Amino acid sequence: MNDVTRAVVVARTPDGPPAPEDFEVVEVPIAAAVEDQVVVRVDVLSLDPYLRSLLGGAHLDDPPVAPGQVVPGRSVATVVESRSTEVPVGATVLAETGWRELAVLPAAAVSPVSVPDGVPDSAMLGPLGMPGLTAYAAHVRHLTPGAGETVVVGSATGGVGSVAGHLASLAGARTIGIVGNATKVELARSLGYDEVVVRTAPDWVEALHAASPDRVDCYLHMGDQATLDGVVEHLAVGARVSLCGLIDQSNGAPPTRLRAGALMAARATVHGMVVHDHADLAADHVDRVAALLATRRLTLLEDRYSGLESAGAAFAALMSGRNRGKVVVAVSKESQS
User: Fold this and answer.
1) Taking the domains of the chain in order of start, what are their residue ranges?
2) Does residue 193 carry a pLDDT above 70?
3) What angle do CA 183, 189, 195 make, to 5 degrees?
4) What is the dihedral of CA 97, 331, 328, 69, to 10 degrees?
5) How confident is the model at residue 126 (pLDDT cuts 50, 70, 90)?
6) Are 285 and 137 in contact (CB under 8 A)?
7) 130-277 CATH
8) Using DSSP, how many helices (H) and how many strands (E) does the chain show?
9) pTM to 2 decimals?
10) Which of 12, 180, 229, 257 is deepest in the core (most CB within 10 A)?
11) How many beta carbons lie within 10 A of that of residue 90, not counting itself?
12) 273 near 243, Cβ under 8 Å?
């Protein structure tokens, strides 16, 4: 095995929204595998918004990722060398590899990938992975929409939003997707949203009111301060809000504030979403969402890039809202074919 591998490191800490130039592809050392370790080839890499907080040193209690360090990240990978009796060569696994081509990991740190026939393995990074679990947990524990209620989902065409909208529709709710620009309207409609509002339009608040004349019963927030304010001011009595993502704050905007008066008037319940709190739902989530994928009742929406060198640009697009679905990077040549 080679003693180096290509990886993406932080070239400089982003100031505001990340740019491709904030990342650099370099060669980094890779150690030989020892007992109970495996070497994996990264096939498809997941890019996730929480990484922006890590780059700024403000993600929960996690240490910041400094310039020169490999960017963390989860991937679907293939075991190419094994010093473990539990994980054979050739196995497809899910692992925290970071943005690199090869990784040496403890065998206990990789999980076998199992998806329904006809569903690509990369679904484990999206609908069947952390974004899907986030949507599922928010649906069953925070929002709990009933038939006829109105559910608003921010970032409706992203990795979380594309699953959340489906789940709300299946519960019999009316769904309103919020998107960042007019080019995403038809995409959101293709995902099953009943109405779509473009948050950058000058009359977006009026459009939201027209789409929800009885106000908003459930809101999954993944947007900026202005979007949060506009929806919270239009909540129905007894509304439920799940705060899932603060993308503008991640990019350096001032701390997000809640409009207490509007929440009080609506007698609303507000939940903070940290997906790691809901690991006990993982099996139920995979069972239900895998069945939806297998029967084509849920669309696997991926924004797929090719080659490790594209990861920086892909992440910049994600954090500026230019993505159309779950953002992944096909790293290995086998996954690019």
Assistant:
1) 4-122+303-336, 130-277
2) yes
3) 100
4) 40
5) very high
6) yes
7) 3.40.50.720
8) 11, 15
9) 0.92
10) 180
11) 9
12) yes
